[in-house]
Amino acid sequence: FPLFLQVTCNCFTISNGEMQDVGVGLYPSMSLLNHSCDPNCVIVFEGYQLLLRSVREIQIGEEVINLSSLPVIFLPCFSSLLHILMLLFLSSNIFVSINQDAKKLAGDEHAWKEVKDAVNEVRYPKSKAGWEQILARCQNLLSSNRGRLPDTNIYQLKMLDCAMDACVNLESWEEALYYGSRTLGPYRLYYSGFHPLRAVQLMRVGKLQYSQDMFPQALETLKQAYDIMKVTHGTDHSLMQALMEIKEQCEAIMRTQ
């Protein structure tokens, strides 16, 4: 049990290019970093390689502090004693975030609790039929809760993300763009400043706008993603290379119109 706790508290979630969890890994030197909701650096991955990147100027003698290990919008989901103990270990600032997030549970309480239960039950399927079931559930809840929950409600936001993922996997690009566009305002609220999750979300929406021939809108969205990602990922990162490629394609199309 002590070994389990040591691994749990010190491991890093390895994410792919779209910041989706693909595994965990132990990086001993990085485990020495403290965490904060107002960090001076962030961690991103290139395959299994962990990259620590500064997001602002770090003064001589200043502690290098990593972004909180737990995404802001997921914090209220943790209620077990083990998770609370982990949060205590990780950062004293986490509880400030929990209190702030509690204010974001706007809307009808019965409605967001129903959405919370639904999103916590989602297991990403490997079949088209499975994605169709998830999308139908998302559509039903989003429709029935129209006017009862704002998109800034953290569980409503997770539901929109889930619906967007389902549409992408079902190649329903127009509908994916609809849900993705609704997430941008809440993402700006929760992930202000240089945050890799916001950059990736902007890139995803920009690509969807590009696929719908919405080139001016796509270029603006991709530029916003670029401004963040050049800091959080750097120009050599494969995701940044992909972003620059589609951004240049969009610029070329705009020049010919």
From TrEMBL:
It comes from the Eukaryota. The keyword Methyltransferase applies. GO terms for biological process: methylation. Keywords: Methyltransferase, Transferase. GO terms for cellular component: nucleus. GO terms for molecular function: methyltransferase activity. Residues 1-69 form the SET domain. This is SMYD3 methyltransferase. It comes from Nyctibius bracteatus (Rufous potoo). The gene is Smyd3.
